Amino acid sequence: QNYLSVDRDLVLAYKESPAGQLIHPGINEAGAVAAFTAAGTAYATHGVPLVPVYVFYSMFGFQRTGDAFWAAADQMARGFIIGATAGRTTLTGEGLQHADGHSPLLASTNPAVLTYDPAYGYEMGHIVRDGLERMYGPDSTDKNLMYYLTVYNEPIVQPAEPENLDVEGVIKGIYLLNPAKIDGPRTQLLASGVSVPWALEAQRILAEDWSVSADVWSVTSWNELRRDGLAAEEEAFLNPGEPARVPFVTQQLEGATGPVVAVSDYMKAVPDQIRQFVPNEFATLGADGFGFSDTRAAARRFFKNDTHSIVV
């Protein structure tokens, strides 16, 4: 950059750099998706691979510009889409217009989009690395993808990456986060994103107050688990004489006895996507309907997806 920008004294001053470019299009979702698409297709139009990272309020992504993301998929765009301020109860202070409870469902309709709802930073690290390898790696055979990650504006405790982390489970959609510490009647708690701490607290209450032994699973992608299950069903349909492949979520939960409670900060239809691939009794908690203007705790009690609702 061989000039001084006119806004050089501002915090968000314009700057050019070969290491990357930060673009602030403002409240301009259509223009922002266009910029994402231009950068995401630069590998073809200019012969220069760029890695766009589009960060926005999650309510104003697939809800407002879903067709633009479909057009990006048609153009074989690649990149990361970060739905910030995700969840129906997590951003209660800015009005119901911002309460996103369904963007993962809309994203699931785009065949080029891989949707993840991580809880922890180490999960995001592995997901982003996988995305870089799949979209830009020399050995990848399926590069024309977009990764949609939902993140939240609520601070939660961020643990260190566990030893012997099930990285395959993180990438494919589910892994055992915290096994039960006591013997007793069994149950399985499946949670994603900001709801993982609620499930961990429910696990503690169930053990201490009810002597119930609960395992907690982090579901990083309900959508990808469903796609894997549907793919397994199609493989079995096309090859009736061969042993059927077991869906990944079914494999992970093999031997995990007791009823399953699946919870997220989205509509119940989001975790319901895997119901047919879970042989256990299956109950879903979520946030259906419009948003709710109150504290986070009150909103979660209203939708009945909080810790004590999981316990019940």
End-to-end separation: 60 Å
Which structural class is indicated by helix and strand composition?
alpha/beta
Domain count = 2
Number of strands: 9
Low-confidence spans: none
Strand content: 5-15%
List the helices and strands and how they pair.
Elements: H1 29-40, H2 42-45, E1 53-57, H3 62-74, E2 79-84, H4 103-108, E3 113-116, H5 121-136, E4 146-150, H6 167-172, E5 174-178, E6 186-191, H7 196-210, E7 213-219, H8 222-238, H9 248-252, E8 260-263, E9 282-285, H10 296-303, H11 307-311
Parallel strand pairs: 1-2, 2-4, 3-4, 6-7, 6-8, 8-9
Antiparallel strand pairs: 5-7
Helix pairs in contact: 1-3
Keywords:
single chain; 312 residues; alpha/beta; Rossmann fold; 2 domains; 4-stranded parallel β-sheet; 11 helices
The gist of it:
By secondary structure, the protein is of the alpha/beta class. The chain is about 35% helix and about 15% strand.
